[in-house]
Specification:
By secondary structure, the chain is an all-alpha fold. Helix content is 77%, strand content 0%.
Length: 310
């Protein structure tokens, strides 16, 4: 069933977009789960990202053939999807590189500056009015994310890692805004077929340039174990295809600002994985952080419903 069949009225449209935003955030929040395990398997950043994007593109290509969907786009749409591809490759590459310089949880916390950046872009460029409910949502989500990872041990952060995450946050914020404002008529699957293609090509260029600067410093080797292949497939399917497709629907149906705030569920997903997969401790601080994030999601939904009612 197509998304349009689910959104015949305003209430369904808001609900569908909100659910897609939540699901996209949860899927994207599994990035550290896949990346850190592949790093432990000895794979480099360029190798991890190339296989993530390349395999995702191949899977998407098979799906597009199954749907018998044309890949034809207008020149305007091609420019937009090409821009989206470049933005996403920058966002993913800088985030994955930051994992080498700081804990993934800290990187996820800093990455969550992107909702604030998204709101700023929407206000400065598009003059979008920022409601009190939106501001409350941002504050609750930001405090909640900080509580998820704050330890109070005074550990000094690597400045290079911080810069990389901030670049990742900015390019991701611009990506969400472009998706929401471009008014593309092609399907989410077609949009992301091109995005993933550009990302895979971008990683090939990144690898080639790295080898030119320092010969044989980068290589694209196949995963060596079944465990490595599992995490490569995970990255391709979950934070690759699923997150991208769902995020497009969310941005189109509830807007860039709401989609960005719903992204608070990304770091929350990482914390839940840490608790249930890696046996990390669940504390009162985590409970408060989780409660604040869910409150932020509630206010986002309330804000969209009020806007729909007016």
């Amino acid at each position: 069933m197509e998304a349009n069949d689910l959104t015949k009225n305003g209430a369904n449209k808001t609900l569908f977009g909100t659910v897609c935003g939540i699901a996209a955030a949860v899927c994207y929040g599994t990035n550290p789960f896949g990346a850190l395990n592949l790093y432990a398997e000895g794979m480099s950043t360029n190798c991890v990202l190339f296989y993530r994007f390349g395999l995702a593109w191949l899977i998407m290509s098979v799906y597009m053939l199954f749907r018998k969907e044309s890949l034809k786009v207008s020149w305007r749409e091609f420019r937009v999807v090409s821009t989206l591809g470049l933005l996403f490759i920058f966002s993913s590459l800088t985030l994955y590189l930051s994992f080498h310089l700081m804990p993934a949880g800290v990187a996820s916390t800093i990455l969550f500056t992107y909702p604030i950046m998204t709101v700023a872009i929407m206000w400065l460029v598009y003059r979008e009015r920022v409601s009190w409910l939106t501001l409350i949502s941002i504050v609750l989500a930001s405090v909640g994310v900080v509580l998820l990872y704050w330890t109070g041990n005074g550990q000094t952060l690597d400045i290079g890692g911080v810069v990389l995450v901030l670049i990742s946050a900015l390019t991701y914020a611009i990506y969400i805004v472009v998706v929401g404002k471009a008014k593309l008529t092609c399907s989410s699957f077609k949009i992301n077929w091109y995005v993933l293609l550009w990302c895979a090509i971008g990683m090939l260029f990144y690898t080639a340039i790295g080898n030119l600067v320092e010969p044989h410093s980068m290589s694209l080797t196949l995963p060596q174990t079944g465990r490595a292949w599992f995490f490569v497939v995970w990255l391709a399917l979950v934070p690759g295809i699923a997150a991208l497709v769902l995020m497009v629907y969310s941005s189109q149906y509830v807007g860039a600002t709401a989609t960005a705030i719903l992204g608070a569920l990304e770091p929350l997903t990482a914390v839940v994985i840490g608790i249930f997969v890696f046996n990390e401790t669940f504390s009162a601080r985590l409970a408060v952080g989780i409660a604040l994030i869910f409150a932020a999601v509630f206010f986002v939904a309330l804000s969209k419903n009020r806007n729909q009612a007016t």
